[in-house]
Amino acid sequence: MGGLDFVGWGVAVGVVVLGGVVCGGCGAGGEEGEGKWGGKKKFWGRSREEEDIEKVYTTLFSPLHMTRSQFGQILSCRRKELRVLKPGEQYCSEKITRVDSLALLLSGRLLVTQSGRSLHMIHANQFVDSPEYFGVTTDDLFQVSITAVEESRLLVWHRDKLRLVIGGDLKGGNKLGGEFLREMFDHVIGRDVVRKLVQVSDETNCDLKKSPPPETAPLVDEEEKEAAPQLLEEEEEEEEEERILESWTLGKIAEEETVV
Questions:
Q1: What is the Cα–Cα distance from 52 to 157, expressed in whole angstroms?
Q2: Max CA separation in the chain (angstroms)
Q3: What percent of the chain has pLDDT over 70?
Q4: Whole-number pLDDT of residue 170
Q5: Could you tell me the strand order of the sheet in which 117-122 lies?
């Protein structure tokens, strides 16, 4: 009987100790290796970065039937650390920053301006510099400035490495798979560019509607308006005098013609 009590107490103590270890690990917010998309994975679930990237996949790429493995290839080209911008901090400066990256906004808002004029806003799950992705080399400079309106978190790729991987499918060695990845990614980027063009067009139309009509000089000022009745009366009198004078002149000519 005493042996059974000893075993029972041992089991109870073991459960308490194990529970304390688990609770202690959770309380400390411990981390354990990398998560599915390369972010830090916690004991009690996915990190914020994992959740954001999962949302990117389900929103942008899963509807195109891109597999998680293929999406993982795209993520393999990203920079390890997310880029965080404070309000007022710039992602790029007009005619100063080189176009060598491609970024996707995970959270926050960015404002795009050109020569001090606002063009449009960038929201979560939109690419930051998609218009520069096509036909622009890494030696070119941004023609716009992009500034954080609120704290913003960005997933950033190195453009040349990304194009190399998705264009040749280097990991799988399958050229057909590389074409598929490239075409799908180009489709996602192109759709983002079209959305931006629509936003710029809407902003321009809205500005035109809000702007007041150009001021025009009044056709008649107040003094002329007050003097109009008198002027009209004087003009009528002058016309009457002219008619009288004309009839008188014609009468004189007629009399002179008849006298021989």
A1: 16
A2: 171
A3: 56
A4: 46
A5: 90-92, 145-148, 110-114, 117-122
Please work out, in degrees rounded to the nearest 5, the angle formed at the alpha carbon of residue 123 by the alpha carbons of 119 and 127.
Answer: 85
DSSP class of residue 59 equals I
Give the CA distances from residue 76 to residues 33, 36, 166, 232, 239, in Å, rounded to whole numbers and listed in that order: 17, 12, 10, 86, 93
Residue with tokens 């590389």: 178
Under DSSP, is residue 129 helix (H, G, I), strand (E, B) or coil?
A: coil
Report whether 88 contacts 144 (CB < 8 A): no
Mean pLDDT score, 144-164: 93
Answer for the pair 188, 121: CB distance below 8 angstroms, yes or no: no
Please say if the pLDDT value at position 207 is more than 60: no
Give 166-197 as a DSSP string: HHHTTTTT-HHHHHHHHHHHHHHHHHHHHHHH
pLDDT at site 199: 80
Answer yes or no: is pLDDT of 258 > 60. Answer: no
**Contact predicate 151/86, CB 8 Å:** yes
